[in-house]
Amino acid sequence: MSDLWNDGDPIADTAAPDGPIETRWERHRFSAKLVNPANRRKLTVIVVGTGLAGGSAAATLAEAGYRVKSYCYQDSPRRAHSIAAQGGINAAKNYRNDGDSVYRLFYDTVKGGDFRARESNVYRLASVSANIIDQCVAQGVPFAREYGGLLDNRSFGGTQVSRTFYARGQTGQQLLLGAYQAMERQIGLGNIEMNARHEMLELIVVDGKARGIVVRDMVTGEITTEFADAVVLASGGYGNVFFLSTNAKGCNVTASWRAHRKGALFANPCYTQIHPTCIPESGTHQSKLTLMSESLRNDGRVWVPLSVGDKRAPGDIPEDERDYYLERIYPAFGNLVPRDIASRAAKNVCDEGRGVGPGGLGVYLDFADAIGRLGRKAVEAKYGNLFEMYQRITGEDPYEVPMRIYPAVHYTMGGLWVDYNLQSTIPGLFVIGEANFSDHGANRLGASALMQGLADGYFVLPNTINNYLAAGPFPDISENPAVAEARATVEERITKLLSIDGDRTVDSFHRELGHIMWEYCGMERTEEGLSKAIGLIRGLRDEFWQRVKVPGTGEQLNQNLEKAGRVADFFELAELKCIDALHRRESCGGHFRAESQTADGEALRHDDQFSYVAAWEYATDGGKPTLHKEQLEFEYVHPSTRSYK
Ligand SMILES: Cc1cc2nc3c(=O)[nH]c(=O)nc-3n(C[C@H](O)[C@H](O)[C@H](O)COP(=O)(O)OP(=O)(O)OC[C@H]3O[C@@H](n4cnc5c(N)ncnc54)[C@H](O)[C@@H]3O)c2cc1C
User: Fold this and answer.
1) Which of 578, 586, 580 is nearest to 531 (CA)?
2) CA-to-CA distance for 421 and 463, rounded, in angstroms?
3) Is 243 left (phi over 0), alpha (psi -120 to 50) or beta?
4) 237: CA distance to ligand 1 center in Å?
5) Under 8 Å between Cβ of 636 and 21
6) pTM of the predicted model as reported, rounded to 2 decimal places
7) For range 470-478, the mean pLDDT
8) Of the four listed, 11, 57, 307, 618, which is most buried by Cβ atoms within 10 Å?
9) pLDDT tier at 620 (50, 70, 90 boundaries)?
């Protein structure tokens, strides 16, 4: 109990099977109820989101015979944020014969997540990973191939094997085209009703079950209520609560947050991934940051000058006056340490005054060795589009001078809590992809988000949702008062946002909120800073509801209105994030509490106190959120100090 939260009952049932881990998924699937093909046609599933998770789920459910209604806020499903994914997707195929296996991927993921993930789910993820590659190849996804024609692999952080499949630096785009084509086939057959440019603004819950959503047509402003037998949220992550992040500008938390307000627990909101290789911020004019894929750390070497304040051009600094600090501190993994470790190490050298570029907030990622060893052509073939992107943004040629990089917000491991069936605490509400709290614990390994999104959408959800839908079709709800109530909530909120007519833009509030979050709930967190942040967020939120200016009306395309609704939800999420970060008085993965570190500055977990998932219940009437704990059991990968040295 605290001033900021209440303690609730522990989570008793995760629906995760027991017994030997290798057969859990098999046995679970066998014991689940099925729906016969004739009955599937009578059942409707709403899928919010058309990224890799939502796109693959919609296509697979429709292929199975369910009626699917799909929603996204972009103008086309294939513009979902997944299209931005660059570096690759993991799978335990062991094509390189370098010692990989399902068990090793499972082990790396549990360890990489700093022992804060559920073993059963992670094992399942590792075991279906190989099927994903087969599925995508069959769809025609053009993965990179070796000279002999076999699929090529490269390495990502936190592993010592090469298991990352890729399509140059555009893996997300190619995978999404595969899922999109599968969806299009079903749209053409009339099994998926596609609603682009429609934003879900509320969840409809009837008799305790998720039964539909309230959506706004973003072009005409029309508000409608949509019904189904089950609802799937695949609405992505919420890194944009920090304003500046590598996420697409549209990424937001609204779909998840609306479900949270209706009773879905929100798990581990404080786990944010800060990616070590992003183009440094160049000024206050910026509205987003750009990722330089982690794959670049396969060949790029990270360094800073050995001496504080060395302002010489990189080419003028001799080898013996450079500090290849990742190779020095972590000789076993070198430049391929996991993201949380690489990010913090970059922050430390910059804090010491050895950072490079404007403001000293940057480190070098240098390809001189790789170009010397492999030749420029080979480097271009692997990373050409990333180099070009870097050059266009910075005006510097990375073939000639090292890239400058700095950590930036990239991914959110937290999200709506789900059980082994990917079902939230609201029956009938399933959550997949980055939107759920997922399998990555406190730190996601590179190339594992695409794997998880597609595992959820192609293989897991289609097998677990049957068990729920077998009890359907559920009764008609169109006249139920809960429907009118949900719709009224949306309409009242829009009216309120438009009527304030204040003197500050939505963006100015969002930027200030992001600044608070980065300062106090970013790469390093302290009790004092987090407590301060909560006060600042509350003050700014009150000001938002007094002074925000949303021009235009609700009956037209109005991007300010869209943003205002999303920022209003970010304010509430931001507070919960800080409360979660404050309550977790340990460091683990992406959550680094300065008070909890080892003598050499590494994250110090407290397994005796914090080996649990923190799942938060929404505080109604402005009260305190309630903390429910899912205790984590480690039967296979026993918690140890995570060392990459
Ligand atoms: C620059 C970048 C590079 C990356 N590279 C990699 C990589 O190489 N490998 C890897 O594994 N991971 C990578 N990631 C992470 C990965 O891309 C994402 O985690 C993943 O694509 C998320 O997929 P998703 O389907 O869960 O959500 P998204 O792709 O974000 O899709 C969300 C969908 O939900 C819809 N939506 C959201 N809210 C609403 C609403 N209220 N109403 C209607 N629709 C809504 C959106 O329209 C969209 O269709 C990268 C991330 C970034 C930012």
Assistant:
1) 578
2) 8
3) left
4) 7
5) yes
6) 0.96
7) 97
8) 57
9) confident
Give the active site residue among 339, 354, 584, 593: 339
Task: State residue 1's pLDDT score.
Answer: 55
53-62, 151-160, 491-500, 546-555: the lowest-pLDDT one? 151-160
**Ligand 1-lining residues (CB < 6 angstroms):** 48-54, 71-74, 80-82, 84-89, 171-172, 199-200, 234-237, 246-247, 251, 254-255, 291, 293, 410-411, 433-435, 447-450, 453
Distance 9 CA to ligand 1 centre (A): 32
DSSP state at residue 459:
I
What's the CA gap between 294 and 157, in Å, rounded? Answer: 7
Question: Measuring CA to CA, how many Å separate 496 from each of 208, 368, 488?
Answer: 28, 57, 12
Q: How far apart are CA 238 and CA 257, in angstroms?
A: 10
Q: Does the structure show a pLDDT above 80 at 622?
A: no
**What is the Å distance from ligand 1's center to 599 Cα?**
37
pLDDT in tens, 601-617: 889 999 999 999 999 99
What is the pLDDT, as a whole number, of residue 572?
A: 97
Asked whether residue 225 carries a pLDDT value surpassing 80, the answer given is: yes
Query: How far apart are the C-alpha atoms of 343 and 147, rounded to whole Å?
Result: 35
In angstroms, the Cα distances linking 185 to 58, 142, 314, 485 are 11, 19, 52, 36
- Tell me, letter by letter, the H, E, C secondary structure of 91-121: CCCCCCCCCCCHHHHHHHHHHHCCCCCCHHH
Amino acid letter for position 316 = D
User: For residue range 365-417, what is the model confidence (pLDDT) as tens digits?
Assistant: 999 999 999 999 999 988 898 899 999 999 999 999 999 999 999 999 999 99
Amino acid sitting at position 124: R
